[in-house]
Amino acid sequence: MSELVVTLIRLGYLVLLWLLVLAAIGVLRRDISGTRVLARGSLTGRSAQAKAAPDGGAPPGRGSRGKRGAPTRLVVTAGPLNGTTLRLGENSILLGRAPSSTLVLDDDYSSTRHARIFPSEGGWYVEDLGSTNGTWLGTAQVEGPTPVPVGTPIRVGQTVIELRR
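Above: the chain sequence. Below: its structure as tokens.
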């Protein structure tokens, strides 16, 4: 082998080594900075309409109250967001780590798009969106769209939420 070929191989190896180091630094930087939270005024398009109501529910003046005795709010009862309350409306509630979620979970055990809680046929249903660790309603794992009784805990990672009147 000529000296030129050996030098080019060494140089190529050095470039690959630096690319690996820079990639590792990029991953560490993203992990340290965490999830980026957008200000409400910076949203555009469809996500702005979904976020228009600050509570994640229907805008004021649009029949957000359904039947008598139906749940009117979603309450986080355990986890990092304990005490957070969202008013229920006509829109579904997306749970996960994605900044576009209605309820953004800062939880290592939840997926980016973990679960969805949505109104249908006069009641509320929970659906797992293919999460890694699953969604639990009471003590049963959610396999498909499942009706949610008022007061039954829904576990998403370390976060527990309930529908309340």
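DSSP finds two helices and eleven strands in the chain.
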